Amino acid sequence: MLAILIGLTIGVGLPIQTSINSRLRDSVGSPFVASGASFTVGTLFLAVMTLLLEHSLLFSPQLFSSQPVWIWLGGFFGVIYLTGNILLFPKLGSVQTVIMPVLGQILMGLLVDDFGWFGSQRNPLTWVRGLGALLVLVGVICTVALSTWLANHHANAEAPATAGLWFWRLAGVFTGMLSATQTAINGHLGTVLHSSLKAALVSFFVGMVALMLIILLSRTKLQVTTPTGQHNPWWMWTGGLLGALYVLGNVVLVPLVGTGLAVVIVLVGLMAGSLLIDQFGWLGAKRHPMTLVQVVGLMIMIAGVALIRLF
C-alpha cells in the first residue's frame, strides 16, 4: 500500500512539474535552458539532502570497474526522453505525444520484469498482468484521446499531417521505453550504492551534464525575460525539486514492486494529476473541467493497476 501511495504521489507531481517548467520556458525562451535549470536545481537539492542525511556525496570508485557502464546512464536516458517529447509534439500533436511514450513505458516495464533486465527481480508476465497493462493503456486512451476526439468531433484534429508519421510514432514508443529503462536502472543503482538519495543524485547529475553540453553545443544564451502582461513568479524555478522527488521516488519504488508495476502506478498518478490541473487551473493553466469519459478512463487505469498488483 505504501508503494502505491509513493507511486501515485510522484506521478501526480510530474504534470505539476511540467506546468512549472513550461512557465520557466516562457521566460527563458528555450526548452533546453528551462530543462537545464530544472536539472541544476534538482541536483543541488539532492546534493544538500544527501549531505544532511548521509553526510557524504562520495561512493567507492571501484564501482566504475566492477559495475556495467549502463548503471550510470539513467539520467542520460531521462534527457533523451525529455528531448524526444519536445521533438514529437509538433510532429504528432498532443494526444499521440502522450500515448506513444506511454505504450513504450508499459511495454518496456513488462519486458524488464519478465526477463529480469538491468538487475531487476524477475516477475514473469502472466495473462492477468498482461490484461492489467492493457487496461492501463485503454484507460490512457480514454482519458487523453477519446475525450479529445469528443471535444473536437474529429479523431485527427490535433495530429498535424506530416510525412513519415509512423517514424515519429515509433520514436515516441522508443523514448517511452527509455523512460522505463531509466526507472529500472535507477532502481538498481540505488541497491548498488545502498542509498536511494545517492542514486537519484547520480541520475540528476548525469542529466544536468548532458543538458549543459546540449546548451553549449547549440550556443543557446540564457536570457530571462518577462512575458507580456505577466510577472515571473518565484515558483517557476522549483520544477527541479519535484523532478528530484520523482526520480527519488522511483529509486525507492522499483526494488519494492518491480519496474513494470512502478511504471503503471506512476502513470495513473500522472493522469490523475493532469486532470486535477485541468479541473482547477492550477499554476496558471487554463481550466478544462473533467468529463465523464476522463473519469471512466481513470477508473479503468486503476482497475488495471489492481490486476497487476494483486495477481
Structure description:
With 311 residues, this protein is mostly helical. 76% of the residues lie in helices and 0% in strands. The chain is built from ten helices and no strands. Helix 2 (31-54) crosses helix 8 (239-257) and helix 4 crosses helix 6. The radius of gyration is 19 Å and the shape is globular. The mean pLDDT is 81. The chain crosses the membrane at residues 31-53, 69-89, 130-151, 166-185, 197-218, 234-254, 261-285, 291-310. InterPro entries: YdcZ. Keywords: Membrane, Transmembrane, Transmembrane helix. It comes from Lactiplantibacillus songbeiensis.
Q: What key phrases describe this protein's structure?
A:
311 residues; mainly alpha; 10 helices; 76% helix; membrane; transmembrane helix; DMT family transporter; transmembrane
How much helix is in the residues? Answer: over 70%
Mean pLDDT: 81
End-to-end CA span: 15 Å
Q: What is the ordering of alpha helices and beta strands?
A: HHHHHHHHHH
Question: What kind of sheet is the major sheet?
Answer: none
InterPro entries: YdcZ (IPR006750)
Protein name: DMT family transporter
Organism: Lactiplantibacillus songbeiensis
Transmembrane segments: 31-53, 69-89, 130-151, 166-185, 197-218, 234-254, 261-285, 291-310
